[in-house]
Amino acid sequence: MNNHRAAWRHALIITVIFSACLAALFMTRSVPYENSQPYRSEGHHFMGGDTLDFKERLTISEPSAVISMLERLGDKERHTAVGASLVEASRWRIKIKVEDIQASSEEQLFDVSRHSELLFSRQYFRLGSILNLAVIPTHGDALCYYILELDRLRCMND
Amino acid sequence: MSYYFRLKNSALVEFDPDRYTLLINTLQNPPEEITLARADARILELLLLEPGAICSREAIMAFAWDDRVVSAGSLNQSIFMLRNILGDSKDHDLLITVPRRGYRFNSDQLVSPASNIEQPAGQSIVEPPSITRVHLAPAIEKQRLGIAIRLGYLAVSVFALFTLWQLYTGYELPHDLQVAEIKQGALSITAVGKSKQEVDALKADVLSSGIVTDHLRGEVFISRTGSRTNLSCVQKTGDAYNLEFSFREERLISMFEKCLGS
């Protein structure tokens, strides 16, 4: 009788530890985004006297991702859609591979010779390239990340 | 169920494993009842469950202490106590040590429950096999239970270690990104960069810019590449906003205000 009671006690302890581990694992394996949820953002590039307005949208629908951008400078406008496949997703890292790029125009909206750094940061989307989005911890629901290859910081909300 | 056996002085002993008691009947003296320590009683019970069979030290410890971790010295101490109580401390004829294997109870000393105190010494009756058989199955079951529990603990320990490792790697920020937070009232400013030096320099520049942030609310993330500064904000409404500008050309405080929508 004593032995059976002890066995039940041990079984209970094992079950509790196992369940706790399972719950912890489930939490660590969570990704920082909601699947198929479009994340939006907008902002400005200040370039001397000019201001380039942009809107961005990121949607990750496993196993693919789409980054859409709309840029406007004065009366000129350009939009770009980047299709990517999801290579890896963890709590702090989203790794994507660029599979497709569609731009409304190949022309730059700004004077490249005057704003070369901006050009370099914006032209990096190349077919086949791998982009690492390092996720930054935030206090709210916003998705903030730093694209290591582009040195680009972005915060987006759903 | 009680067990009956004889001591060397021909006293008849009735052992009740449920109450942990030994009732010692001698011809000369009135019956004496001794209450054993729980572990001692469990050891005696296990040895009597399969009299004559060798019980390993590990099996005895698992049975007597319910799989709690105890030192070998505890078992030695219990055997020593039992032998003292049973008058077996000198010859070890009743609780027999089997070198490197364990202990066994001398089945020659068992008597049937029908035996009484008047029965002459030396005419002990071996317990009928039926009594032993009744207890064999639970004994084996208990031993199997002990092994199952041990395996369960082993498996759950490995799983727990794996989980801890996953937690450690999962919550640790990637090494290729450094962040440093500056808390200013209701405003949180986080410098972001690829190296610690870069982040520290950015943090120092923000702090030395002398900006007053008392009226600002929300989260600001700031990074710098060359002369261009990237500001990403989560406003108090939860909306996100991003700015890129030249650190030299724009005032930081006005960028903060634009970014946070103040």
Automatic annotation (TrEMBL), chain B:
<dbReference type="GO" id="GO:0003677">
    <property type="term" value="F:DNA binding"/>
</dbReference>
<dbReference type="GO" id="GO:0006355">
    <property type="term" value="P:regulation of DNA-templated transcription"/>
</dbReference>
<keyword id="KW-0472">Membrane</keyword>
<keyword id="KW-1133">Transmembrane helix</keyword>
<keyword id="KW-0238">DNA-binding</keyword>
<dbReference type="GO" id="GO:0000160">
    <property type="term" value="P:phosphorelay signal transduction system"/>
</dbReference>
<protein>
    <submittedName>
        <fullName>DNA-binding protein</fullName>
    </submittedName>
</protein>
<dbReference type="InterPro" id="IPR001867">
    <property type="entry name" value="OmpR/PhoB-type_DNA-bd"/>
</dbReference>
<keyword id="KW-0812">Transmembrane</keyword>
<feature type="transmembrane region" description="Helical">
    <location>
        <begin position="151"/>
        <end position="168"/>
    </location>
</feature>
<feature type="DNA-binding region" description="OmpR/PhoB-type">
    <location>
        <begin position="2"/>
        <end position="107"/>
    </location>
</feature>
<dbReference type="InterPro" id="IPR016032">
    <property type="entry name" value="Sig_transdc_resp-reg_C-effctor"/>
</dbReference>
<dbReference type="Pfam" id="PF00486">
    <property type="entry name" value="Trans_reg_C"/>
</dbReference>
<dbReference type="InterPro" id="IPR036388">
    <property type="entry name" value="WH-like_DNA-bd_sf"/>
</dbReference>
<feature type="domain" description="OmpR/PhoB-type">
    <location>
        <begin position="2"/>
        <end position="107"/>
    </location>
</feature>
